[in-house]
Amino acid sequence: MKLDLDRYNRVVWALLGTLALLGLGASLVAGLAALWPSSRHAGTIPTPGTPHTQDTTAAPPSLRLGIPEKIQGTEFVLIPVEAMVEGRNGAGGGGFGSYSKGDAGGPLFNMVFLNSTTGASHALLAKKALITRYEMLEDRRGEAVKAAGLVFRMVEADTNGNGRLDQEDEDKVYLCDPAGKGLREIGPPDSLCERWEFDAGRRILYVLTRPKGPSDGSGPRDLLFTSLDGNQPLQPLLSKARMDELRSVLQQ
């Protein structure tokens, strides 16, 4: 009977040791996974005054820099800045929104323009926002490529009242020069921009807008244009008289 008891004890201790090793291995894998860069786009950031922002025990926001992009024809490189709100958006932080530009890697909070010659740098924005899309406009003539400006879509306010900035909020479209200067909003205040198209030859940006509010895709659209240098402010591409003429033809 004593031999059977000793054998039982050895079996129990062997099982406990195996379970301990498995638990240690799982913890090691989880730790390594937490260090690996995340390609998820999900997440939100709380706006001032929400309960999340009052949590003094939460970890402070951290930043993650993206791969620098050469701005053609200039001495500048563009560095995306992602915001990871650790401890506020679930395990791993996850950021506060998303943006789309090629194979985007995370939530875009700001962008830094770095002069590769002097080392001087400046941020594009001086306030918290969510950049959901951006495009460096380029003028291509033969083999020569030169940046003409930066256009981007940005959420500035919690318009749906859910306590955070996300892609469900109304956004605005902004334009600046290739060095990140001369920032200006484009688009009527009572409209939303659906898409834009750049005419490099004329240095004109075409903007397709629609009225604010829910849309099923069948409502009215306005086609506007503006020059990159701002000499031609945003205005309709076709005159009101031409649009009225087209409407009268439709009614025949």
3D structure, described in words:
By secondary structure, this protein is an alpha+beta fold. It has 3 domains: 1-36; 40-171 and 178-183, no CATH class; 187-252, no CATH class. Helix content is 18%, strand content 35%. It is built from 2 helices and 15 strands. The protein has helices at residues 2-35, 240-250, and strands at 45-46, 62-65, 69-70, 76-84, 108-115, 121-123, 130-141, 144-155, 164-165, 172-176, 184-186, 191-199, 204-211, 222-227, 235-236. A hairpin with a 5-residue loop joins strand 3 (69-70) and strand 4 (76-84). Mean pLDDT is 75; it is low at 24-43 and 86-105.
How far apart the termini lie comes to 106 Å
Secondary-structure element pattern, one letter each: HEEEEEEEEEEEEEEEH
Helix content: 10-25%
Number of domains: 3
In terms of per-residue confidence, which ranges show pLDDT below 50 for 5 or more consecutive residues?
A: 24-43, 86-105
User: On the 0-100 scale, what is the average pLDDT?
Assistant: 75
DSSP strand count = 15
Can you tell me the overall shape? globular
Supply the number of helical segments: 2
**What would you report as the Rg, rounded to the nearest angstrom?**
26 Å
Largest beta sheet, briefly?
A: 5 strands, antiparallel
Relative strand content: 25-35%
* Structural class by helix and strand composition: alpha+beta
